[in-house]
Specification:
The chain is of the alpha+beta class and about 220 residues long. Helix content is about 30%, strand content about 20%. The strands form two sheets. A six-stranded antiparallel β-sheet has the order 3-4-8-7-6-5, covered by helices on one side.
Length: about 220
């Protein structure tokens, strides 16, 4: 069916589906009793190069930690880009993991994922997000953020560009902070931007998908 979904509807669907996946992941993760053998700093996560210095600082703001369980061998931006490239040939909407980040407290797990959405979007984002001027679209909340960019390639000038998002999201239900939420929103937005830019570079998108080297954290008007 060729029905066009609103942006709000798509975000709500993604949030609900994501929550169900997070609950399932949380159940399995809670059974882990042995601590990881290797801990690394934030800039070494997810294959390295994906987490900028600012994003590593953002991780500390979100988690209170500076060292994390080492990422799996295939939990990298390069592997995610390879998977995403396959999906662009077969689907208008798909999602997948880039990596998972395991601190201690107060956040048990951060899920970093990509989302391919080539359905035309209409309408404003869900009210929980503060809109930020990054890429095609970006939004941040106290427990999640996303950055969407358009990926076109010079060697395929007649092809339609892809619309790709990088999400950074806490699993479960993190405690909502009292008072000013901006530090957490900025931290999640910085982390999402870092992965979006790394994905755009890995996919060889024109002009890095329109993403600047630094995140733009002043809300759009």
């Amino acid at each position: 069916m060729g029905t066009t979904l609103t942006r709000t509807h798509r975000l709500l669907c993604a949030a609900v589906a994501g929550s169900l996946m997070f609950l399932a992941a949380g159940c399995s993760d809670d059974t882990r009793k042995e601590p990881p053998d290797v801990y690394v700093t934030g800039d070494k996560l997810c294959g390295g190069r994906a987490v900028t210095k600012d994003a590593a600082k953002a991780l500390q703001v979100i988690t209170g930690d500076t060292r994390f369980a080492a990422s799996g061998k295939y939990s990298t931006v390069a592997d995610a880009a390879e998977e995403l490239t396959r999906e662009t040939m077969s689907s208008a909407y798909e999602r997948g993991d880039i990596c998972r980040i395991y601190p201690d407290a107060p956040v048990n797990e951060l899920r970093i994922r990509w989302e391919l959405d080539n359905v035309i979007l209409e309408g404003p984002p869900h009210p929980q997000f503060t809109v930020l001027p990054m890429g095609e679209e970006a939004g941040a909340a106290h427990d999640k953020a996303y950055v969407t960019f358009v990926c076109g390639q010079k060697d395929q000038p007649d092809s339609s560009p892809d619309h790709i998002s990088a999400w950074a999201q806490a699993t479960g239900r993190p405690t909502r902070p009292e008072g000013d939420e901006r530090p957490l929103k900025n931290a999640y937005a910085t982390l999402a931007h870092s992965f979006a830019l790394a994905l755009a570079k890995e996919l060889n998108c024109d002009d890095n998908g329109g993403l600047e080297p630094e995140p733009a954290l002043i809300p759009a008007t």
